[in-house]
Amino acid sequence: MVIAVVALIFGVLLGVFILFPRNRKSVKAEKASSNANRIKAPKTFSKAEVSLHNKRTDCWIIIKDKVYDVTSYVEEHPGGDAILAHAGEDSTDGFFGPQHATRVFDMIGDFYIGDLEQ
């Protein structure tokens, strides 16, 4: 009987140590650390560097001095190959043309990779 009580107490203590580690960061500190790791300074690209990405299989565009890798979107582009007309170049005028629905303005952020070097 005594052995059973000791085993039970030992089991409970072991469970407490497993469920509540002693060196765990606070939730706020953990979130702040996680956000700091995700938020990075934007990378900058020169026009020459962007110009190298001018193919269907490697397509970057510039819109208002921001660089976007739209390679994964080329095949889905409703305007077909029109997106390739300015691949590796500034596409600001075409992007803000009347042919685009307002949803493209919400979507473009998903493709952002950095800023154009000034």
Automatic annotation (TrEMBL):
Give a GO molecular function annotation for the protein.
Answer: heme binding
Q: What SMART domains does the record point to? A: Cyt-b5
GO cellular component terms given for this protein: membrane
Q: Where is the Cytochrome b5 heme-binding domain?
A: 42-117
Highest taxon above the source species: Eukaryota
**Record's keyword annotation contains Transcription regulation:** no
Q: What InterPro entries does the record tag this protein with? A: Cyt_B5-like_heme/steroid-bd, Cyt_B5-like_heme/steroid_sf, Cyt_B5_heme-BS, Cytochrome_b5
Q: Which UniProt keywords apply?
A: Heme, Iron, Metal-binding
**What does the record list as coiled-coil region(s)?**
none
Entry similarity comment = Belongs to the cytochrome b5 family.
Protein's name in the database: Cytochrome b5 heme-binding domain-containing protein
- Organism expressing this protein natively: Salix dunnii
Tell me the classification of the organism that encodes this protein.
Eukaryota, Viridiplantae, Streptophyta, Embryophyta, Tracheophyta
